[in-house]
# Entry
Amino acid sequence: MGEILVLVDHADGVVRKPALELLTLARRIGEPSAVVLGAGSAAADIAAKAGEFGAAKVYVADGAEFADQLVVPKVDALTQIAKAAGAAAVLVTSSGEGKEVAARVALRLESGIITDAVDLEAGDGGPVATQSVFAASFQVKSKVSHGTPVITVKPNAVAPEAAPAAGAVENVTVEFTGKAAKVVSRTPRVSSGRPELTEAAIVVSGGRGVGAAEGFGVVEELADSLGAAVGASRAAVDAGWYPHSNQVGQTGKQVSPQLYIAAGISGAIQHRAGMQTSKTIVAINKDEEAPIFELVDYGVVGDLFTVLPQLTAEVKARKG
Amino acid sequence: MRIVVCVKYVPDATGDRRFADDTTTDREAVDGLLSELDEYGVEQALKLAEAHGDAEVTVLTVGPDDAKDALRKALSMGADKAVHVNDEDIHGTDVIGTSAIISKALEKTGYDLVVCGMASTDGTMGVLPALLAERLGLPQVTLLSEVSLEGNTVKGRRDGDAATEQLEAELPAVISVTDQSGEARYPSFKGIMAAKKKPVQEYDLDDLGVEADEVGLTGAWTAVETITARPARTAGTVVKDEGEGGKQLAAFLAEQKFI
Ligand SMILES: Cc1cc2nc3c(=O)[nH]c(=O)nc-3n(C[C@H](O)[C@H](O)[C@H](O)COP(=O)(O)OP(=O)(O)OC[C@H]3O[C@@H](n4cnc5c(N)ncnc54)[C@H](O)[C@@H]3O)c2cc1C
Ligand SMILES: Cc1cc2nc3c(=O)[nH]c(=O)nc-3n(C[C@H](O)[C@H](O)[C@H](O)COP(=O)(O)OP(=O)(O)OC[C@H]3O[C@@H](n4cnc5c(N)ncnc54)[C@H](O)[C@@H]3O)c2cc1C
# Structure
């Protein structure tokens, strides 16, 4: 079995959970190697973590370019490493940036690309990826038929499993080539202290029915009682009630938690596209005709301002 | 200044979208339209052109006969002219092939700034702008929620997962804009009438020097093995809140071991 390169997504010197999921999936199709780019002094810790999750080798490259220029330095590095290692496949997390990096790497390797896989398994002619398409109404299995398969995988495709391996660090000097946009400044997102939306086991989302920015108070209180992330529909985001970084849907985040609670959300196709693969779906909406009820495992027809606080109180009571 | 906006003709997302027997998107079952996310690209291109004063906006699509509807819509919003790449051999092309066709068409059309949407609403890959930048050797300034031109420099704000970045690059460049970049205008009656007279240049693969075997299903570097309709979610329990709704919901969540 060949070497499967996993581009490790990290922020603030910490490995992000989707990278551990990729390493877990990579073991199904070959021998995982991690690629850690632009992590500075955190690289050693990140490499150790990648080793814990099955990376036999960890390629580490550093340089100001990774932070100062958009996308291209990562493409330079990943392509160079893939060629030198004779990689059997390249896996990248499906984020905006991850997909852009993966696509350009695929082109340079003269390979096909599959984006937004929700599952990955070994097949006769290479890895087989599952995509969930047309707002999750179809499951498509496909493979790359030319070159080194480059596949981007959505967060939450699999539960990360530790499987200690050597994690031997190999430092790489990258030749930077391409024409890139300059990153003039970067403002890190302020953490809400709540779980990351795409990684959370439970998501509580509010929509236009929440009525105002202050209305999100009842949504946040329920989320905090459950240890959940907070999401929002585009209507709520467009109204300025909640940050765009919390939008769930086609043009926001695509989430696939164990439990999704939609409050005051009608269930438009573009919203569904971001949450329909959730394991259990619950909705609170005062309109019994709201299309969201077609999706639910449990629904309450009622006013979210009475139902949510009652639920929160009950959750707190049960948790003691 | 030559601004070219790439737009895609897609099946309406609110329709019952399906696949044809050859695993490609069924374009018969559902009406098509200009991808709503590409309206934002057209809007920003028109704004940049208005601010610049001496700019021409061309809209470009690769798609079947009906894709003209998407071009007409963009022309009626205010674009000056259109390019339609249409050839039977394109049917079934994957994203690598599509990027090859579009980059050839762009070379033929000429450009200083290429504008794309953040993603199509059918394939939803969101990678075509990056592929165009790679093929044309241009900087990519993508996923912008704010964009401006200052002289020969394009500047923009990119809201990433972990951070917000201010980006800039010299022209020529490829940009893509998100649905946060500002509402797209509606075509006016005058715009709709004027669009009928605006020129639409047609190209086939020959005109662009693209070989038929580089594209289509046979030229694709990816292959679909199976397509399965997702089983409809089984209808759950829906209760009316008669004062105990929150408690009933809590009982359900406890039964499912969430609390
Ligand atoms: C290209 C494109 C991309 C899009 N991307 C996204 C996306 O990423 N995410 C997204 O969410 N949308 C997206 N949309 C928008 C989408 O089509 C809907 O407009 C949006 O999801 C509606 O949000 P909503 O459900 O909050 O609002 P509405 O549809 O207005 O629904 C509000 C609901 O709240 C209920 N309600 C009102 N008051 C109460 C109360 N007190 N208690 C309980 N219920 C109450 C109402 O009965 C109603 O069902 C996109 C649209 C397009 C065209
Ligand atoms: C459900 C589904 C899944 C698919 N998955 C894959 C896959 O994993 N790998 C693969 O190689 N192909 C895949 N395809 C095929 C791919 O969608 C097409 O090749 C398409 O031409 C380009 O991808 P996109 O629509 O996702 O574009 P995106 O990368 O999402 O488009 C971004 C922008 O590029 C411009 N653009 C896109 N298409 C055109 C066009 N035809 N004309 C002009 N401008 C355009 C627009 O500005 C658009 O906003 C898939 C198609 C479908 C329907």
Chain B has one domain: 2-219. The helical segments of chain B are 36-52, 68-77, 95-109, 128-136, 189-195, 205-208, 216-219, 245-255. Residues 2-219 of chain B form a domain with the Rossmann fold fold (CATH 3.40.50.620).
